[in-house]
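[Automated response] Your request has been received and processed.

Submitted sequence:
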Amino acid sequence: MASRPVPSPSELPEPPDLSELDVVAEDLDVVDEGMGDDLPPGMPPGAPPDDPEGAELTLGEHLNEIRQRLTVAVLTMVLTTVLALVFASTILDFLLEPGREALPEFRPIYTELLGFIGAYIKISLMLGLAGAMPVIVYQIYAFIHPGLTRAEQKWIMPIVGMATIAFACGGAFAFFIGWPPALSFLLNFGQDIADPQVRINNYIDMLTRFVIWTGIVFELPLFLMGLGAIGLVTSKKLLGMWRWAIIGSFLLAALITPSIDPVTQTFVAVPTLGLYVLGVVLVRLVENRTVIPVIESDLDDEDDEPEGQPA
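Generated structure:
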């Protein structure tokens, strides 16, 4: 058998230059270390900072966060309630002013030893809750924020702000517009037969219920807008229900107004019907439109993924 000729050293191929590979390896190490520097605790190196799976908390950490946020919310409410107690007398005097306008000699009474103190504390607690509500809403939002999508994070705060403004407008409408005629009717009806002796607890309870329920009714446009955004109702369908809207407005006014006279109920029913019309306009603005474009873009990205690749 003939042996193969041995090549001379000059004919041998030159070995590859590994210096470039070493430089690339050093660059990869630097990038890998840089990605792990700013990661939150518990997130493995190399995971993207906005990866929700890499930032998952344990049950104990969730409970600890809930405890901390509840503590902040409760302490804030205690502080605002204490501040409200200082001004409770002035606020009570302000709330009784519509009664004095309806009946000059109006002066509420209390028939239990704790009657006046109960009304005093009730007003303070309600004002304390109202004053602490921004902090409470923020604590709730901060807790659920990591679990929200980008679109939900974009829309939740404007919705909360609009809902707060709508509730405040409803409460102001109830106290300054709806409450005086209702109270005038109740205090003057049958005055030639019996003198009104109104307990202060009863006065405060009726007033607060009327204000709260009217504030909730003023959320109707946003509620309809939400239904329209997710496609459950359309403006055409709502316009076709205008007869039911009129009947419902007067039925709702009869339920929430403290007075049974038609004048007071009309004061509430007509604005409620106007809120329904505003809701129809808002539904018209959001229907058949891209209300949350981020979600649709995310879905498009998922559709463009090659087959066989996990989402």
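Summary generated for your ticket: The CA atoms of residues 170 and 215 lie 4 Å apart. The radius of gyration is 33 Å.
If you did not submit this request, please reply to this message.
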